[in-house]
Each structure stands twice: as C-alpha cells, then as structure tokens.
Amino acid sequence: MKKSKLFIGTMVLVIINIIIKALGFIYRIILTRLLGTEGIGLSEMATPIFAFFLVISTWGISLAMSKMIAESFSQNRPDKAQKVFKTGRNLMMIGGSLTTALAILLAKPLTLHLATDPRVYYCFCIMIPSIFIIALCSAYRAYFQGLKELSTLGFSQLAEQIIRVVVGLYLAYLFLPYGLLPAVMGVAAGGVFGEFAGLIFMWFAYWHKHKKNPLFSIANKTYNKETYILPLLSFGTPVTLTRVLSSIFLMLQAFLIPACLQAGGLSITAATEAYGRFAGVATTLLHLPGVFTASLTVAALPAIAEALGAQNQPLLKHRINHILQVTVITTLPGMIILYFFGEFLCDMLFHSPASAEPLLILSLGGVFYYLQTTLNSILQGMGEVKAILINMLISSIILVTGIFLLTPIPSLGIKGAAIAVNMGAISGFLLNLYSVQKRVKEPLYYGSIFLQPFVCALPAILIMLISQPYLAIFCPMTEMAACAAMGVFFIAYFVLLLLTGGLRLLQKI
C-alpha cells in the first residue's frame, strides 16, 4: 500500500510537472521575445540574491520536517508528526519574518555593490514579499512530502505556476510601454502573486486533511511532551549552511560572469545580454528534462528515509539504483537532442541562435548536473547533510574558479562559463556518488544505471543521422524535418533499451 501510494503520487507529480514545465517554458519564450535577453538578464541577476535570503528564512527546516514526518509515520506515530509540523511551521514563520526585514535593510547595499547593473535593485525589491510567503508555504509542503502525498504538492505548484504566468505576462505587457525596467518589475510581481496562490492552496489542503481525517484529528489532540526544536535545527543547520554557501556561489556566478565578460572586452549592456542568453535561454532548455527528475527528487527523500527507518538494506539499495537509473534514462536523450538541435531550438523558440554556443557545451555535462541533484536528495534522505555540504563546497569552488579563469578569455567568453558549470557538475556528481556508495557499502548496479543507456544512445544517434536526409525529402519544412528526426531518435533509444533489458530494474519497482 505504501509503495502504491508513493508510486501513484510520483506519477501524478510527473504529469503535473510536465504541465508546469510546459507553462514555464512557453512563459520564458514569450518573455524573451517581449523583453529581450537584456530584460531576462536583469531578472536572472536578481534571482540569486533572492535565493540567498530564502535559504536563510527556511533554515533547512523543511527538509528536516519531511524526513522526521516520514519516519514518524513509519513508526506509527501520527502525534509526533503533528508536533514536528507545528514546531517547524512556527520556526519558519519566525525565520521568514526576520529574514524579510533583513532583506529590506540590505537590499540597496547588496545589489548596488554586487550587481554590475544598478537596475537589479528595483527587481529585487519587488521579490522581497515572497520570502515570508515561501517560508510559510514550505512548512505545509514539507508536511505533505513527509506523508508521501506528492500529488498535493504537484497541484499547489501548478496553481502557483498558472498565477505566476498569467499575472507576470499581463503586468509585463502592461508596463512595457513605460520601459524595460517596469516590465521586468511586473514579471517579478507575478512571481509574488504565484507564491501567494501556492500558499493558499496548501493551507486549504492541510485544513481539509486535518478536519476530515479522524486519525489526524486524534493525533492533533494527543498530548506530546517531546520537543523537536533542537532536532529540527540540528538537521537544518548543516542543510542551511550548504544552501547558504550554494546561494552565495550562485550570486558569485550571476555577478562574476558579466564582470568577467566585461573584463574580456564587452560593454555592460552586451555583458548583460550575454548572461541573459546563458541563464535565460541556454539554462532554460537545459532544465527541460528536469520535468521527470524534479518529481524524483521530491519522492527520493521520504522513500530513502522510510527504507532507512525500517532498516531495510535491500529496499534502500534498490531505491537508490532505481532513482539513479530513472535519472540517466530520462535526461540522457534530452541532452543529446540539445547537442544536435540546440541552435535550431534557440532560434525557433527564442529567436536567439547565439544562445546555442553555451547550450552545446552545457548539454555535454547535463546528465551529471541532474545526477548531482538526485544524489543530493538521496543523501538528504540518509541524513548525510555534512557530506552534502563538503561536496557542494568543493564542486562550487571548482565552478567559480573555472568562471574566473575561462570567461575573461575573449575567444571563449560565455562558452568559458559553460565549461566551468560542467566542471562543477561533474565534480559534484563524483563526490556525491562516492558519499552514497560509502554509506550503502554494497556496489550499485553501475551497468544498468550508466553503461546501458549510453550504449543504447549511440546506435540511436546513428539511426537519427542516417534518417535525416530522407526525412528532409518527406518533410519539406525544416521544423517538421527536425521534429521528425528527434522523434526517430527517441523511438530508437527506448526500443533499444527495451530490447537489451535496460528497463529491467525500472520494471521491478
């Protein structure tokens, strides 16, 4: 029953994530055409500062809540789960309030000293109300993640995305006649409205479950003398340190790349546009295969925590193998498509063919980026937060060093930043894999996870390349021929996987 609930919830979350990703992708296409890469660059430079304050506001408590709530229900302790939730919610309300006040005080000095473009300050100010909203909403989402009711999380994210897209586009269109900056600020305001919609949805979902389910009503009235403030903070503190350092490195990346591009000879406007192509177009396409892995990382934490709580080593090993296999199988074909059709997609969707330069390089390391993320979730489920901190620190130093050394080189420019991102992703993947393997002790199924998908991809690429001239004959339009070639590759890839038994581990779950 538990497995069925987790599996169904994950599938629902995958479907909802497909819709969310599609909406977000269309939204980004429209915004890029509406605001240009300069406007997208402004928005992307404000986001890392916002993420920094967001990390402080939640203090990693949401992950601790998910893990402890999952363990509580595996121990048949709904009273403990309720106490953990209420304690965590109160902590995050306090953290959200304090961090919002801190963001208001530090907004001007931070943006003016760190950003290469002074307009970033106004974009960030519009985002500040979201800090408290997201902090409070994270408590409710952590609760449902711990219950493994992933469909509820998905529907809340869908509501959030719909409001963000509708309000953001409306305000951008409304304010664009007044200049680029007001339009970008309108987009930021759309994000605030979206986050508020997600919070309202989660509050109603919790209220409905709390009032209608007798088990939760009884658990809520149970007198529980235990206090969970210290366990939540002790787990959350290393997580927060990891996220704080990660957000700092993201800020460095957002501000260092334009600065290094200027050092290489570009003007402020040209550097902002180049960063917009990198972060707004190339990275958007790189994140498309994340429609599957996003659901997987949400499901991974409670699934791993449950297996550990039950001390079921075979189940733990199987779930780790399953998560990693799904990650490779679903992201590898996407990276291959981006490599071969990157320029076509950048031009057709965003009218920005120049964005293909960093995209082609990013696609070579894309699989490792996704594997690093899923391994992070596995390590969180294991409670290995210190290992995540150390691994992230090392890989981020490699990334920033690469940006600093490669991006100012005129012949590389923004391509140097893409190479540095790949260096960080590969090193982070290797370090996380070592940490997981060290904890599991028994060898993972590396053949099924890594080797088989790559072996099946090679003949699928060959089939695609051979078929392209014939497809061009039957499909006179370039767009139709390209889409047909992509379809041939996907069909050949998954048929080869099926014939060679590459989906065998997947079918056991």
Q: Which structural traits does this protein have?
A:
single chain; mainly alpha; 87% helix; globular
State the low-pLDDT regions, or none: none
Q: Report strand %.
A: under 5%
Q: Which structural class do you get from the secondary structure elements?
A: mainly alpha
Sheet with most strands: none
In DSSP terms, counting alpha (H) and pi (I) runs of 4 or more, how many helices?
A: 18
Average pLDDT confidence is: 83
Rg over C-alpha atoms, rounded to the nearest angstrom: 23 Å
Distance between the termini: 13 Å
What's the number of extended β-strand segments? 0
Q: What is the N-to-C order of secondary-structure elements (H for helix, E for strand)?
A: HHHHHHHHHHHHHHHHHH
Helical proportion? over 70%
Number of domains: 2
Shape: globular
Please outline what is shown here:
The chain contains 18 helices and no strands. It has helices spanning 2-58, 61-74, 78-114, 120-127, 130-146, 150-175, 180-212, 214-221, 229-263, 268-286, 290-309, 313-350, 356-382, 385-406, 414-440, 446-474, 478-499, 504-507.
Characterise this structure.
The model has no long low-confidence stretch (mean pLDDT about 85). This protein has two domains: about 1-445, no CATH class; about 450-509, no CATH class. Helices cover about 85% and strands about 0% of the residues. It is mainly α. The relative contact order is 0.11. It is built from 18 helices and no strands. The protein has helices at about 1-60, 60-75, 80-115, 120-125, 130-145, 150-175, 180-210, 215-220, 230-265, 270-285, 290-310, 315-350, 355-380, 385-405, 415-440, 445-475, 480-500, 505. The longest helix has about 55 residues, at about 1-60. Helix 1 packs across helix 4, helix 3 (about 80-115) packs antiparallel against helix 4 (about 120-125) and helix 9 runs parallel beside helix 14 (about 385-405). The radius of gyration is 23 Å and the shape is globular.
